Amino acid sequence: SGGSNGGGAYLVGIDTTYPPFEFQVGGEYTGIDIEIINAIAESQDFEIELRPMDFVGIIPALEAGELDLAIAGMSITDERKEILDFSEPYFDAGLTLVVNADNTEVTSLDDLDGKVVAVKNGTTGSKFARENQEQYGYRIADFEDSPSMFLEVANGHADVLLEDYPVIAYAITRRDLELKTVGERLTDDQYGIAVLKGKNSDLLEKINAGLKELRDSGKYDEILKKYIDDSG
Ligand code: GLN
Question: Is residue 73 lining ligand 1, measured as CB closer than 6 Å?
């Protein structure tokens, strides 16, 4: 086996900074996605090399053959399934509204008329914001990465942001950002590991076999417990 770099390793696209899924500690990447893909590689006996990039660049890089697979807190969507094949789902997520901890004005989408909504390029949050903009009457501010989007709302420069609830929960509880979630969860989705559609079925089989082994051995739960306080 081997990756598109011509060597022995598969090139793995990850988001630059998406705790608790991928983030750096002391210059090394760690997190749920990193531990899962490392464990799969070990169980299925292949090598990987991580390729961190802005989320918006990941699918184009898969299409260009610059990556073999991606694990990036990436939601399985019908639109993406037209160009990608996904593994079995490995995590439940979905979008929530997030405001500054001091904000008492915004409690749902209905309060967003004239407000500024921050989103990250290429994400389900960005797509949701665009699809619902006309109905709710907000402006959209685009960001390349989640930390700068979070800061914008923490600093009061944008009113609201859209993010996956496990990611924002981690940011609030572990990183002390002055943010809070409001309202109902807006969407339900699941994360999957992606390869280019129709091009990498052998690799996808190994990924699914590795995921199954991780779940059966209890290692999957162990990994999650390290990063998620409340499994619900
Ligand atoms: N789950 C979201 C998506 O798939 C966000 C992913 C991310 O920001 N890394 O678009």
Answer: yes
Q: Which domains does the chain have, with CATH numbers?
A: 9-92+190-227 (3.40.190.10), 95-182 (3.40.190.10)
Nearest to 84 by CA among 12, 1, 209, 192: 192
* Distance of CA 75 from the midpoint of ligand 1 (Å): 6
Q: Are strands 91-93 and 139-143 parallel, antiparallel or unpaired?
A: unpaired
The question of ipTM being above 0.90 is answered as: yes
Q: Supply the pTM of this predicted model.
A: 0.95
> How is 74-128 classified by DSSP, letter by letter?
PBP-HHHHTTEEE-S--EEE-EEEEEETT--S-SSGGG-TT-EEEEETTSHHHHH
Ligand 1 proximity of 74 Cβ (cutoff 6 Å): yes
Query: Does the CB atom of residue 21 touch ligand 1 within 6 A?
Result: no
CA-closest residue to ligand 1 atom 5: 123
- By the 10 Å C-beta count (0-12 exposed, 13-18 middle, 19+ buried), 221 is classed as exposed
User: What pLDDT score was predicted for residue 230?
Assistant: 61
Span 160-198, pLDDT tens digits:
999 999 999 999 988 778 999 999 999 999 999 999 999
